[in-house]
Amino acid sequence: MSDKSSLWHSVRAVAWSFIGIRKRSGFEEDVANIKPLHVLGVGVVAALLFVIGLIVLVNLVVAK
C-alpha cells in the first residue's frame, strides 16, 4: 500500500473517530492498514481545525 493511500485511510479513520461510530470490521481493517504516525499527524491537524472552527464560530456569534 502506498503512503498516499495510507494517509487517506488515516484521514477516514480520524474522521470516524471524531463522529464516534465505527464497525468492528472497519476498525480492524484500519489497524492492519494504516501507519500510527499518519493517524497522529492527521489527528493533531483535525483537532486544530476543530478548535479554530469553534473560535471562529464563537467570534461570529458574539459579534452580532
Brief description of this entry?
It is built from 3 helices and no strands. It has 64 residues and is mainly α.
Q: Which stretches are poorly predicted, pLDDT < 50 over at least 5 residues?
A: none
Q: Specify the number of helices.
A: 3
Would you list the SSEs in sequence order as H and E? HHH
Give a count of the beta strands, DSSP E runs of length 2 or more.
0
Determine the N-to-C terminus distance.
49 Å
Q: Into how many domains do the coordinates divide?
A: 1
What is the 3D shape?
Answer: elongated
Mean pLDDT across the residues is 85
Helix content range: over 70%
β-strand percent reads: under 5%
What structural class do the secondary elements suggest? mainly alpha
The biggest beta sheet is recorded as: none
Taking all Cα atoms into account, the compactness measure Rg is 15 Å
